[in-house]
């Protein structure tokens, strides 16, 4: 049985994992692959079975009728509904429709959106996890994306002169002799 706020709890946990993600000058495809890898690693770290490009409950439109769409990551959890995760850098109506269909089939839907634009929350019960990423044009005109640590710390100050050693610390001298 699942708890009512299972989606919110899972979205918060995944958001915490993704918040540690940093990278510099990656293409759109590279960022998406990195985020999918990180999501899959997060699911595996929970002890769940993780499936990439898992079959969705949503059938593909003609001319590919009879085949099904896929979700980026699906996680099978013991004694709890599966979790399905889509990763996008754009606002895709089809993704929302797919995740709503997954929710209707009893799965917990999470949508990881990354980029620089404002993100519009999807309808319930789809939970959105956002990842702020900056973009710039590279030398060849390609769009490159970066995500740096949230807080850049300055390097520590160093002394110019020699450092004198103090008396030994009992923590480092197990015999207690000093």
Q: Give helix % range.
A: 10-25%
Overall strand count? 8
Instruction: Give the rounded overall mean pLDDT.
Output: 87
**Distance N terminus to C terminus?**
60 Å
Structural class: alpha/beta
Query: How are helices and strands ordered from N to C?
Result: HEHEEEHEEEE
Model regions low in confidence, pLDDT < 50 over at least 5 residues: none
The CATH class of the domain at 26-117 and 125-134, by name, is: Alpha Beta
Strand order, main sheet: write it out: 2-3-4-5-6
- CATH architecture call of the domain at 26-117 and 125-134: 3-Layer(aba) Sandwich
Annotation field: number of helices: 3
In CATH, the topology of the domain at 26-117 and 125-134 is named Trna Endonuclease, Chain: A, domain 1
**Largest sheet composition:** 5 strands, mixed
Shape: extended
Radius of gyration: 23 Å
Beta-strand share of residues: 25-35%
Question: Which terms would index this structure?
Answer:
8 strands, Trna Endonuclease, Chain: A, domain 1, 5-stranded mixed β-sheet, 178 residues, 24% helix, alpha/beta, 3-stranded antiparallel β-sheet
Structure commentary:
The strands form 2 sheets. This protein has a 5-stranded mixed sheet with strand order 2-3-4-5-6, with helices on both faces. The protein has a domain at 26-117 and 125-134: Trna Endonuclease, Chain: A, domain 1 (3-Layer(aba) Sandwich). It is of the alpha/beta class and 178 residues long. The protein has helices spanning 6-18, 28-45, 93-104; strands at residues 23-26, 49-59, 68-77, 80-88, 108-115, 127-132, 134-137, 143-147. A hairpin with an 8-residue loop joins strand 2 and strand 3. The mean pLDDT is 87. The N and C termini lie far apart (60 Å). It is built from 3 helices and 8 strands; from the N terminus they run H-E-H-E-E-E-H-E-E-E-E.
């Amino acid at each position: 049985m699942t708890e009512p706020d299972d989606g919110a709890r899972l979205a918060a946990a995944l958001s915490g994992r993704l918040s540690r993600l940093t990278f510099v000058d990656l293409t759109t495809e590279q960022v998406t692959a990195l985020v999918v890898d990180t999501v899959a690693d997060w699911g595996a770290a929970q002890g769940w079975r993780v499936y990439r490009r898992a079959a969705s409950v949503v059938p593909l439109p003609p001319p590919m009728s009879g085949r099904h769409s896929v979700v980026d990551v699906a996680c099978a959890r013991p004694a709890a509904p599966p979790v399905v995760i889509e990763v996008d850098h754009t606002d895709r109506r089809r993704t929302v429709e797919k995740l709503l269909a997954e929710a209707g089939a009893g799965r917990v839907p999470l949508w990881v959106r990354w980029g620089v634009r404002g993100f519009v929350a999807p309808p319930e019960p789809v939970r959105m996890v956002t990842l702020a990423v900056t973009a710039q044009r590279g030398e060849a005109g390609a769009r490159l994306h970066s995500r740096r640590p949230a807080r850049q710390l300055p390097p520590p100050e160093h002394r110019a002169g020699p450092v004198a050693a103090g008396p030994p610390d009992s923590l480092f001298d197990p015999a207690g002799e000093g």
